[in-house]
Amino acid sequence: MAGTKTEKIRQQELRQPDTFQKVGADARDWLAQRQKLIGIVVAVIILGGVGAAIASELSKRGEEKASQALGQALSVLDRPIDGVQPAQPGDTETPFKSVKERDEALVTALSDFRKAHGGTRSATTAALSLGEAQFRLGNFADAQASFGDFLKGAAQNDPLRAGAFEGQGYAFEAEKKFDEALKAFEQMGAAGGGEFLAGMGDYHKGRMLIAQDKKDEAAAVLSKVSTDHPNTTAARLSSERLAVLASQGVKIPAPAQPAAAVPDAG
After folding, report:
1. At a CB cut-off of 8 Å and minimum separation 6, what does 25 contact?
2. Mean of the pLDDT values across residues 57-64?
3. How high is the pLDDT of residue 259?
4. Taking a C-beta distance cutoff of 8 angstroms, is the pair 69, 123 a contact?
5. What's the sign of the alpha-carbon dihedral 95, 101, 106, 109?
6. Nearest Cα residue to 192 out of 234, 221, 222, 223
7. Residue partners of 37: CB distance under 8 A and separation at least 6
8. Separation CA 210–CA 109 (nearest Å)
9. What's the CA gap between 33 and 136, in Å, rounded?
10. Are the CB atoms for 234 and 225 separated by under 8 Å?
11. Distance CA 180, CA 162 (A)
12. What secondary structure does DSSP assign to the chain, as a single string?
């Protein structure tokens, strides 16, 4: 009797759909009902990939176009200047009457270029030359902003960052914003900038401390430049500043001795 009952239960179970079969059927129904939607999603994914490729290609072309346009904008620098940069045989462009006129034309050309090609690497690069021209014209606030734009857009390892910090420091210094200038020159030192600018950040820092009448602090900073950056332009300029400070009665710290070599334990 028990065997008969067990056999009935087994037959009932066999008549019921298997759990996995039921899930599979439900899934097929779900797919059938949503086939159109899935097709759309797949199409979007495919088109998204194509779109990314197209965007990448357009971006590349945009960068190339911007690079060419930047070269055209900077061609202003090739024009001769009366009494400064004489015309060469074959020159067809009218010479600028002065450096000021040349810089005004350069600011206009680079400003127009940056408006037309904003967001490109060339536009970031142009901000550096624009800031330099604005500084020469005495437009110090504009120069500060342009150098700032370059620093925002340039890669952290860009060797031109040191020059941008230096330009920004000079622009702040021209407005006697010595605290801001000091910060910019400190950042210049941290940015490096290659052999030519080695130690210049510390040299400028010393100058700003002198401008703030913090001569003892300036002497401490400047006296380290020759030790940290020997045989450089910064070391020579720092020595000249230290000589002036010494003539004013400022006590000059003794040069730090180079660290002694650690003996080989082996």
Report:
1. 17
2. 64
3. 52
4. no
5. negative
6. 234
7. none
8. 38
9. 70
10. yes
11. 16
12. -HHHHHHHHHHHHHHSPPHHHHHHHHHHHHHHHTHHHHHHHHHHHHHHHHHHHHHHHHHHHHHHHHHHHHHHHHGGGGS-BTTTBPPPTT--SPPBSSHHHHHHHHHHHHHHHHHHTTTSHHHHHHHHHHHHHHHHTT-HHHHHHHHHHHHHHS-TT-TTHHHHHHHHHHHHHHTT-HHHHHHHHHHHHHH---STTTTHHHHHHHHHHHHTT-HHHHHHHHHHHHHHSTTSHHHHHHHHHHHHHHHTTPPPPPPPPPPPPPPP--
Cα–Cα distances (Å) from 98 to 83, 106, 121, 138, in that order, read 8, 13, 31, 15
Model confidence over 80-139: pLDDT tens digits? Answer: 898 888 877 877 788 999 999 999 999 999 999 999 998 899 999 999 999 999 999 999
Q: Who's near 69: CB < 8 A, 6+ residues apart?
A: 113, 116, 117, 122
Query: Which pair of tokens denotes residue 93?
Result: 């462009």
> With 80 as the cut, is the pLDDT of residue 255 above it?
no
Q: How far apart are CA 93 and CA 96, in angstroms?
A: 9
Rounded CA separation 53/96 (Å): 46
Is 216 within 8 Å of 251 (Cβ atoms)? yes
